[in-house]
Design brief:
Helix content: 25-40%
Structural class: alpha/beta
CATH class of the largest domain: Alpha Beta
InterPro entries: Gfo/Idh/MocA-like_OxRdtase_N, Gfo/Idh/MocA_Oxidoreductase, GFO_IDH_MocA-like_dom, NAD(P)-bd_dom_sf
Number of domains: 2
CATH topology of the largest domain: Dihydrodipicolinate Reductase, domain 2
Strand content: 15-25%
Protein name: Oxidoreductase
Shape: globular
Pfam families: GFO_IDH_MocA, GFO_IDH_MocA_C3
CATH superfamily of the largest domain: Dihydrodipicolinate Reductase, domain 2
Oligomer: single chain
Number of helices: 10
Low-confidence stretches: none
CATH architecture of the largest domain: 2-Layer Sandwich
Mean pLDDT: 94
Order of helices and strands: EHEHHEHEHEHEHHEEEEEEEHHE
Distance between the termini: 41 Å
């Protein structure tokens, strides 16, 4: 651990757009986690970030890797920069918490997970939607089988990203940097949350397109039908072409009730006429500002990762569990390209 207080020693790699909620969460967790260095290649932006949040700068990745006080790295770089960083961290004995996706392709994601497992190190992935109070309440209810058997699922991610200020930025929406479009960059959160609640998807039938609202290499609209391993059916629509953007919603239809997660709230509609609500409305990053959401979800995820390291367990969201959503996205995109129903496991790195 980092110091006599028993705090986890953490180094940050990357401090761009995705860093703000992490920084706020780490400030709130200062009694548990000590941020011992932040590295970003742009020194001026690194120093401004560190001054804003009160974190010490690091001159290089190597400085962080060589610091014996640092137990883990929080990696917030674009996907195309991560595989080599993970290899270096693994060889230095640093645990890793990393922004989604694991990598741009499933093959690269599998290599990343394997490298950490071979080194005996923990790899956590930032899927903060699992840590909303409403999401956790629904997960508990499903685990206790309060609603009966799951029969149908609907996932809606009706988001907006502008061309100017978002897709016009170099690398945004490209295969080389991001690995894809709306599925792997935005809807991956909704899909990971869905899988954590439903279990695996068996087959998909998908359609993908790039609308005239964007000039980009990859898709900004996907619609799909889903068949789950437990026999339930589902529908997905995800887009970044829905101005001005709205909250994601996930609806689960069970034998005795329907449950909807939307905007940070869980609404349960029982078939006997009762209704319940857990949580309340919150921003979800569905509009032009992708970071317009509270940081408490990140705080809960980072706290879970730190507790997992202390107690020797796996965190709730790991590199291994993240491979499931990567393979589902592969299947959706392969189905859209081929124009036919596909089994998820048939698509490989597709």
């Amino acid at each position: 651990m980092a110091d006599e207080q028993g705090r986890l020693g953490l180094g940050l790699v990357g401090a761009g757009m995705a860093a703000k909620p992490h920084a706020l969460a780490l400030q709130a967790l200062a009694d548990e986690i000590a941020v011992l260095g932040v590295f970003r290649r742009n020194a001026a932006e690194r120093d401004a970030f560190c001054a804003q949040y009160g974190f010490p700068p690091a001159e290089s990745l190597e400085v962080l890797l060589a610091d014996p006080r640092i137990d883990a790295l929080l990696i917030l770089t674009p996907p195309n920069a991560r595989e080599e960083i993970v290899k270096a961290a693994a060889s230095s004995g640093k645990h890793i918490l990393m922004e989604k996706p694991v990598e741009r392709t499933t093959a690269a994601a599998e290599r990343t997970v394997a490298a950490c497992e071979a080194a005996g190190l923990t790899l956590g992935i930032v899927f903060q939607h699992r840590f909303r109070a409403a999401s956790k309440a629904l997960a508990e209810a499903i685990a206790e089988e309060r609603f009966g058997r799951l029969q149908a699922v609907q996932v809606l991610a009706p988001w907006w990203r502008p061309q100017a200020g978002y897709y016009d930025k170099p690398g945004r929406g490209t295969l080389e940097q991001d690995g894809g479009g709306v599925l792997i960059t935005q809807a991956i959160h909704s899909l990971d949350l869905m899988l954590s609640l439903t279990g695996p998807v068996r087959e998909v039938t998908a359609f993908a397109a790039t609308t005239g609202l964007h000039q980009m290499e990859t898709e900004d609209f996907v619609a799909a039908g889903l068949t789950f391993a437990n026999g339930a059916v589902g529908a997905l629509m995800a887009t970044t072409a829905n101005y001005p953007g709205g909250p994601e919603s996930l609806t689960f239809n069970f034998d005795r009730a329907s449950a909807t997660l939307s905007g940070g709230a869980l609404t349960i509609s029982w078939m006997d006429g009762r209704s319940e609500t857990v949580g309340g409305p919150s921003e979800g990053g569905g509009g032009a500002d992708p970071m317009a959401f509270p940081f408490d979800w990140h705080k809960a995820l980072i706290a879970d990762f730190a507790d997992a390291l202390r107690s020797g367990r796996q965190p709730a969201s790991t590199g291994r569990t993240a491979l499931a959503v990567h393979r589902l996205i592969d299947a959706l995109m392969a189905s859209a390209r081929q124009g036919r129903r596909l089994a998820v496991e048939e698509t490989g790195a597709g």
